[in-house]
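Batch job 17 of 40 flagged for manual review because the log was empty.
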Amino acid sequence: MKRIIYLTVLLFTTVTTNAVAQDQSIFALGEKAKNVNHTGDVWLRELNAADKNINAHISLAVFAPNAKLNWHTHAAGQILLITDGIGYYQEKGKPVQIVQKGDVVKCLPDVAHWHGSTPKTGVTYIAVSPKSTTTWLQPVPDEEYQKLEKPVEHATASEQELKDLSNEKWAWMSDKNINKLNDLFHEKSMFVHMGGSWGKQQELDVIKSGSIWYKKATVYSTSINIIGNTAILLNDIDLEAVVGGNTVINPFMVTEVYVKENGAWKMGSLTFSRLMRSVKINNENKN
């Protein structure tokens, strides 16, 4: 334990590489598709294969932000059920449509179209189509894609709930409120620091003992992506912490993963990735 704390003190004041997190779908995430007829990251999972009894091919598609299919046609048409996120849909010769969770999109037979996520938001849909031929056409030019109308960002009730919960979590960590944190942390939660990684109980012990005191987190921006019962939050922060008796301030991108169980969000993981930018807060004001 002392060795871990020592490494944390040492690494808290040095530059480390950033980490990334990947969210997952309401269904089990499918295989990452090869970039043959699309750009960006797309995961596909077949839910039902069309057969002689039920002529309906059903598949799940999960698009990371900045991913899009090439122009294409379906000989027998297709229906898209948007289950999460915000994306684009466009037919040849028509304006682009912004689609989001709850929308139903009808792709008519032999009508050229494309669809995908927006540059900043992922999108998930279930595609339903009869057994037929898909004809792939040219890619969507990236310069045109980047100039498309950006959807107005309004926080959903769940997003606001998670943002508030994340802010409360920083207050609980600062106050060393172990009871609140014990309720928030999932039993299988993991915590990734610059000096090591550990589970729920060790994180609670570290906070309770003051080995790491999360004194003050100044949050500059928060992005939230919810897919099914999993939520990923990215917080750009300056963190003032007391580590092994030393006060340090570092800029972090903090990745928080939450899972909804029995109607309540539980933290599944917390990862600190040090940023290359300088600290924004005024060091002279620190106590």
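Reviewer: the log was empty due to a logging misconfiguration, but the result itself is present. Confidence is low (pLDDT under 50) at residues 1-25, 283-287. Unflagging and moving on to job 18.
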